[in-house]
Amino acid sequence: MEEQLSLIDLVLNASITVQAVMALLLAASVASWFMIIQRIIYFRHVRAEMLEFEELFWSGTDLAAIYNEGNERAAAGETLGMENIFRAGFKEFSRLIKQGGVDTDTVMDGARRAMRIAQSREEEKLEQHLPFLATVGSTSPYIGLFGTVWGIMHSFRGLANSTQATLATVAPGISEALIATAMGLFAAIPAVIAYNRFAAKVDVTVGRYDVFADEFSSILVRQTYALAARESAKAKQA
């Protein structure tokens, strides 16, 4: 208990600059932990939704039925990830097919373009807060080091005005300065670990999106050629 009070006393007795550095690092640490927890929940939700949608997509259910089933959830903003990519591609595909007289390449280019746009938006959602975590991880040690250097300078300035130069005289000032370095590391280490972990998750998820977009494009190509063949057969019959 005495050690804890001693630590608090060191923080309270630190210079204004060192206290400001400590407050900044504490705020950065709290904010980064909030974002880390938020990202963990979000990535788990994305993975669960992706597995659920993949199971539905490859179950043999009609694509139009899958699209219509998700209309209400999409209107409420409850769809995300792979389903949003599917909906964007299928919506553009259906729109171009209904126009009639549009060649296969134009239909597929429009569908792929819509899926790329939707995928870019989903990537932005995945990468949300990652730049902040990278900034905290890279700058916090230097901010803490600045507080340490400033605190030591302040301690030695006080030593110059002291009549008796002993270790006991400068020890409190150096101790309070080193706390700033410790807080910098405390803020940086979790942020760096979380950033690397989330960046890897983003790469894996985006890779899954790419594979799905290619597979879905192949299905749409087959449907486009099938529709073109039926229209050609009707024209010959007429």
Q: Which structural category do the helix and sheet elements fall into?
A: mainly alpha
Order of secondary-structure elements: HHHHHHHH
- What is the overall silhouette? rod-shaped
> How many H/I helical runs?
8
Determine Rg (CA atoms, Å): 29 Å
Report the average pLDDT across residues. Answer: 85
Strand content is under 5%
Summarize the main sheet: none
Relative helix content: over 70%
- The rounded distance between the terminal residues' Cα atoms is 94 Å
Secondary structure tally: strands: 0
Query: Low-confidence segments, ≥5 residues, pLDDT <50?
Result: 1-5
Please give a handful of descriptors for the protein shown.
mainly alpha; cell membrane; cell cycle; transmembrane helix; rod-shaped
Description:
There is one protein chain. 87% of the residues lie in helices and 0% in strands. The protein is mainly alpha-helical and 238 residues long. It has a domain at 20-136 and 187-232. α2 packs parallel to α8. The chain is rod-shaped, with a radius of gyration of 29 Å. 25% of the residues are buried. Residues 1-5 have low confidence and may be disordered.
Topology:
Blueprint: H1 2-12, H2 16-57, H3 63-69, H4 71-75, H5 82-99, H6 104-126, H7 130-160, H8 167-237
Helix pairs in contact: 2-7, 2-8, 5-6, 5-8, 6-8, 7-8
In short:
This protein has 238 residues and is mostly helical.
